[in-house]
Amino acid sequence: MIFASKTMHLNFKEGVGYLTFPALEAVPFVRHAFTTRVGGVSEGEFTSMNLSFGRGDPDENVQENYRRICNAAGFVYEGLVASAQDHHTYVRRVGAAEKGIGIYRPRDLKSVDGLITDEPGITLVTYYADCVPLFFVDPVKRAVGLAHAGWRGTVGRIGEETIRRMSEEFGSRPEDLLAAVGPSIGPCCYEVDEPVAREFLAMQDLKPEEFVTPKEGDKYMLNLWEANRRILRNAGVLPEHLSVTDLCTRCNHDLLISHRATGGKRGGMAAMMGVF
Q1: Which member of 19, 152, 220, 265 has the lowest number of beta carbons within 10 Å of its beta carbon?
Q2: How do beta strands 80-82 and 123-128 pair?
Q3: Mapping DSSP to helix (H, G, I), strand (E, B) and coil, where does residue 108 land?
Q4: d(CA 8, CA 22)
Q5: Is 133 within 8 Å of 116 (Cβ atoms)?
Q6: DSSP reduced 3-state for 81
């Protein structure tokens, strides 16, 4: 495995590998991680740090993987709260009453693609295997957010919606927020068909012709990193407060889990973040 990134750190502790953004590491009351496939107990196509339930990996393996990443990255297992993703833009505020949902308690909602909290000891969890994780930290109000931005969520501007919800719930100001666009399928590998491209080309305020590139045969290459960066900038995040990954999940599928690289035979990674 060769790791090359100018934007993220690869950390190893107790045999578990996870990624972090330097700008978010610098916030003393926040812990965050984007998991890798290294350090878990899952086997076969799930090898080894699978954090997705319901894909055929025994639940006890997934829960043990959560315990391992929690021990390595400094999270509290009992304080985990997971999303219930379906590629929409609902952002949910969670706290102590939601501890364990989606991990060791059943999900209570069917559509949650973003989570926010300002309660210490709560760790937000969202899932990935090529889609874009968005991280948000308000160092003034001591609040955090995570959002899952696949192509539908990106078109729905879930990043903007997360900022709106943090403003509504915590009084967050966009100019105070630190934000990061995490590992996903990159512009090098994300080919889409014309109907998907058309959705992005309609977002004229973002100048989409600069991140949607036509190919032969009614195919296009799509840069989700740039699309989400522009959405966050338009929502008021300052350029100096915005980090963007350079890690493509498909190009780095020895370290990261990619749906496209595996033909869907895979587990899932997680973005995790909390206030401590």
Answers
A1: 265
A2: parallel
A3: coil
A4: 7
A5: no
A6: strand
Q: How many residues does the chain have?
A: 276
Cα(83)–Cα(107) distance, integer angstroms: 8
What does the pLDDT read at residue 59?
98
Per the CB < 8 A criterion, the answer to whether 159 and 234 are in contact is no
Class assignment of domain 9-185+237-275?
A: alpha beta
Provide the Cα torsion 214, 263, 108, 120; round to 10°: -80
Q: How far apart are CA 259 and CA 118, in angstroms?
A: 32
Q: Which two tokens stand for residue 144?
A: 């955090």
Strands 269-275 and 114-117: unpaired
Which two three-digit tokens encode residue 109? 């909602």
What gap in Å lies between CA 87 and CA 110, rounded to an integer? 11
pLDDT tens sequence across 196-232:
999 999 999 999 999 999 999 999 999 999 999 999 9
Model pTM score: 0.98
pLDDT the model gives residue 84: 97
> 1 pLDDT exceeds 80?
no
- The domain segmentation of the chain, as residue ranges, is 9-185+237-275
Please name every residue paired with 159 in a beta bridge, in sequence order, or none if there are none: none
For residue 228, give the 3-state DSSP assignment.
helix
Candidates 274, 209, 271, 276; CA nearest to 245 is: 271
* Cβ atoms of residues 217 and 192 within 8 Å: no
- Assign residue 141 a region: left if phi > 0, alpha if psi is -120 to 50, beta otherwise? alpha
Question: Angle at the Cα of 95 (from 93 to 96), degrees rounded to 5?
Answer: 160
> Considering only CA atoms, which of 61, 19, 66 is closest in space to residue 44?
61
pLDDT (tens digit per residue) in 51-65: 999 999 999 999 999
